[in-house]
Design a protein that fits this description.
The protein is an alpha+beta fold. The protein has one domain: Fumarylacetoacetase-like, C-terminal domain (Fumarylacetoacetate hydrolase, domain 2, Alpha-Beta Complex). The chain has seven helices and 13 strands. Strands 1, 2, 3, 5, 6, 7, 8 and 11 form an eight-stranded mixed beta sheet that branches. Helix 1 crosses helix 3. It is globular.
Length: about 260
Amino acid sequence: MALTPEQRAEAARALRRAEHTATPVAPLSERLPGLEPADAYAIQQANIGRRLADGATVIGHKVGLTSAAMRRLLGVEEPDFGHLLDDMVVRDGAGVFVSRFCRPRVEPEICFRLARPLRGPGVTVEDVLAATDAVAPALEIVDSRIRDWRITLVDTVADNASSAGLVCGPWSPLTDVPDPASLLVDLVVDGERVASGSGTEVLGHPAAAVAWLANTLSAYGTSLEPGHLVLPGAMTAAPFVTAGQKAEARFTALGPVSVTFA
């Protein structure tokens, strides 16, 4: 790691304050030119530790930047991962206040629920599908605590991969749905389709993103456990949302999922 422990601790505190106050901070990559991915993951883990100490529970992980559209949008070249916590869950069809976020976006994703553990290295797409109990239509609410979304890879990694909320629709047994790579989605905001995509946008197959996650986590001594949820990445670009808007993702085979912003 290139940063000192004091620098990592201060960066973590700055991001935690930004999240609490919904007031973004300047890019960490500009404030700390020596910031490397290992530092960024340490900063992420420090804030996850704070949230666990406050009573939250880890329910899974998310993979970010798996679609070419999102990598182009944010100017980065490789995936990243963050944690999903129980206090991030929003009920399907419910409302959420925009004021709790800095500048939110929404992403349609296929959420995986695991029945068996996945421990890298060497996890394959076939391993992921064999370990998956069910899938659900989902919207991830992403929000950067970095001002104006001026992020590099290390900025979003430190910021829990820009994750802020999870909205899941009904679960379907994996055996009852087509290959996740073949699923299509329309992202609809206030009744207007704003984006469309397919499962192939996610590293060629959503299960490939879950495999990448399991293999990457192994380097940190972490595995995916039974009951964990995994968001493998966005199937479309992620539009900004504002107060008064309703976002809905309409999936083939899986059905719709929605959230309203107040």
